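I keep forgetting this: the sequence line spells out the residues, with the fold written below as integer tokens. I include a record here:
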Amino acid sequence: MADQPEKPTKPTKPVKPSKVAELRRRYEWIDHLLRAGQSYTENHGDHYAAAITYFSVLALFPLLMVAFAAGALFLRRNPDLLLRLQESITKAVPSDLGTTLNGVITSAINSAGTVGVIGLIIALYSGLGWMANLREALSEQWGQRKDPPKLLRKMLGDLLALIGLGVALVVSFGVVAAGGLAKTVLKLVGLDQVAWLNPLIQLVVVVVGLLANALVFLWVIARLPREPVTWRSAAKAALAGAIGFEIIKHIMVFYLAQITNSPTGALFGPVLGLMIFIFTVSRFLLFLAAWAATAKENMVEKPPPAPGPAVIRTEVTVGRAPSGGLTAGLVGAGAVAGLLLGGFARRRR
């Protein structure tokens, strides 16, 4: 039977890359965003954001009470500065939440002498728990998965980080308050009636507010992780965070206005709105950390693991000895061969 000719095989078409893969190859910023989103998901960003929200709600009011009670004691001779700091904090959150925080701060200022040691201990305990969770979440986004330090060293580091964040917030609110003084200064020098200066002052106030927010984001992203990270990546993320934070505030103003229209929303609106606002900002902050950690300058390829040590084993194989029957047969065959050879040799002689 003759061999049949083989049918020609069709050439395989090259696999066409997906639209997303093509966009990632063409635009580096899209690839960076997708890398950050993958890193955020793999490092449990939503779970950490929920933990930060929980501890933030517990720690916010005690910290505000103690901070402004102490501020009222130290700034007795300068109540205007304390009032401007209060206004800066209430403006940093959506309007309804600002009203709630304003009431807490006012109560803290009025009861400055009665906060006492117990209030300080409660605020310290709540603040350390909140800071520990925030630092763990940021460290996870940066891929810092080493064993945590010992308890006392960890608590001391969290305390210093909490104080550093407090200083950064005070500086930020102070910068915002200083920007708000521009109109007062113009009024004092008699230039408040100049038409073209008002838009310029508004622009200056917005820019100053963005820089103040960027300062806080920079400190949080670069210095709150357990190990220091690069300032370059953190600075880019901090600037994006300052702009994104303002967008989140405006969205939350609209959202909170919607949920507080109902009777239930009016009852639970402030607390519910505070939790939603903190959770949204926490997710945004952790995504910024993931975005900074997945920048090109931080994407260091890990070398392949070294092979294990070679183990040389010498194996000696010992053959099995012949059985007794086989030995007897071989001896008999040898004897017969010897007799035949001997008879053949005698005949030749």
In short: The chain is about 75% helix and 0% strand. The chain has one domain: 21-297. The two ends are 67 Å apart (CA to CA). The longest helix spans residues 263-293.
